[in-house]
């Protein structure tokens, strides 16, 4: 979660825990910077209530903390420098995480595409093999069908896949798009002249 990452970076820098109930300057400054960074980096994502609940405070405490931040920012060069340093570090850290997430998402989507492609090829392979192995060659099938089926049974698995992709599929597609010839309808009382 983004709030967790921001909190961890600030706690690491200050060597303290933000949710601790102390009002020393060190804790006040750390919480003020946490509130401000959360609102600056993600202005629409986190409400005052959400930020406050995350470190066991209410929304009014966050609003007061942001007002305190403005006062500290205007009056202390050290505080201002620390804030900008932590904000830059947080943005860089979150950008790296976003890049890592995008890389991981890209890897997962490529992996999923590859798996789907392999499953599709495997399904086609199983369909062809299933047809070849389950179709019984009977006397009803013609001699050319028998010859074709016997020839296909002799092929290796990769050859069958290649045959299906390069020969059978295009042929079946061609058959689907083939235009049937119109046939003359015999009408009672009409004569066909040939």
Give a summary of the structure in a few sentences.
This protein has 194 residues and is mainly α. Helix content is 75%, strand content 0%.
Walk me through the structure:
The protein has about 190 residues and is mainly α. It has two domains: about 1-100, Chromosomal Replication Initiator Protein Dnaa, Chain: A (Orthogonal Bundle); about 115-175, no CATH class. Helix content is about 75%, strand content about 0%. It is built from seven helices and no strands. The protein has helices at about 1-15, 25-40, 50-55, 60-75, 75-135, 145-155, 155-175. Helix 3 packs across helix 4.
CATH architecture of the largest domain: Orthogonal Bundle
Question: Quick check: average pLDDT?
Answer: 77
The name of the CATH superfamily of the largest domain reads DnaA protein, C-terminal DNA-binding domain
Low-pLDDT runs of 5+ residues are: none
Shape: elongated
- C-alpha end-to-end distance: 84 Å
What is the fold-level CATH name, i.e. the topology of the largest domain? Answer: Chromosomal Replication Initiator Protein Dnaa, Chain: A
Instruction: Give me the number of helical elements.
Output: 7
Question: What would you report as the Rg, rounded to the nearest angstrom?
Answer: 36 Å
What percentage of residues falls in helices of 4 or more residues? over 70%
């Amino acid at each position: 979660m983004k709030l967790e990452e921001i909190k961890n970076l600030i706690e690491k820098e200050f060597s303290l825990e933000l949710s601790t109930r102390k009002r020393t300057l060190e804790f006040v400054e750390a919480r003020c910077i946490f509130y401000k960074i959360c609102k600056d980096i993600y202005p629409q994502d986190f409400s005052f209530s959400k930020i406050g609940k995350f470190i066991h405070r209410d929304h009014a405490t966050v609003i007061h903390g942001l007002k305190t931040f403005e006062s500290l920012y205007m009056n202390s060069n050290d505080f201002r420098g620390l804030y900008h340093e932590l904000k830059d570090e947080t943005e860089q850290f979150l950008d790296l995480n976003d890049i890592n997430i995008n890389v991981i998402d890209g890897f997962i989507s490529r992996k999923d595409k590859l798996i789907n492609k392999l499953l599709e090829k495997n399904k086609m392979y199983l369909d062809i093999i299933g047809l070849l192995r389950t179709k019984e060659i009977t006397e009803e099938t013609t001699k050319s069908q028998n010859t074709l089926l016997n020839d296909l049974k002799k092929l290796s698995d990769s050859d069958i896949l290649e045959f299906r992709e390069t020969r059978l599929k295009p042929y079946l597609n061609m058959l689907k798009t083939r235009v049937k010839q119109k046939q003359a309808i015999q009408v009672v009382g009409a004569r066909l002249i040939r």
